Amino acid sequence: MWKAENWKDYEVLDTSSGEKLERWGDFLLIRPDPQVIWDTPKTNRGWKKPNAHYHRSSKGGGNWEFFDLPQEWSINYKTLKFNLKPFSFKHTGLFPEQAVNWDWMTEQIQNAKKADPGRTPEILNLFGYTGGATLACAAAGAHVTHVDASKGMVQWGKENSRLSNIPETSFRWLVDDCTKLVEREIRRGHHYDGIVMDPPSYGRGPKGEIWKIEEQIYPLIQLVEQLLSDDPLFVLVNSYTTGLQPAVLTYMLSTAIKSKHGGHVDADEIGLPVKDNGLVLPCGASGRWHK
Question: 23, 97, 169, 257: which sits with the fewest CB atoms below 10 Å from its CB?
Answer without folding.
Answer: 169
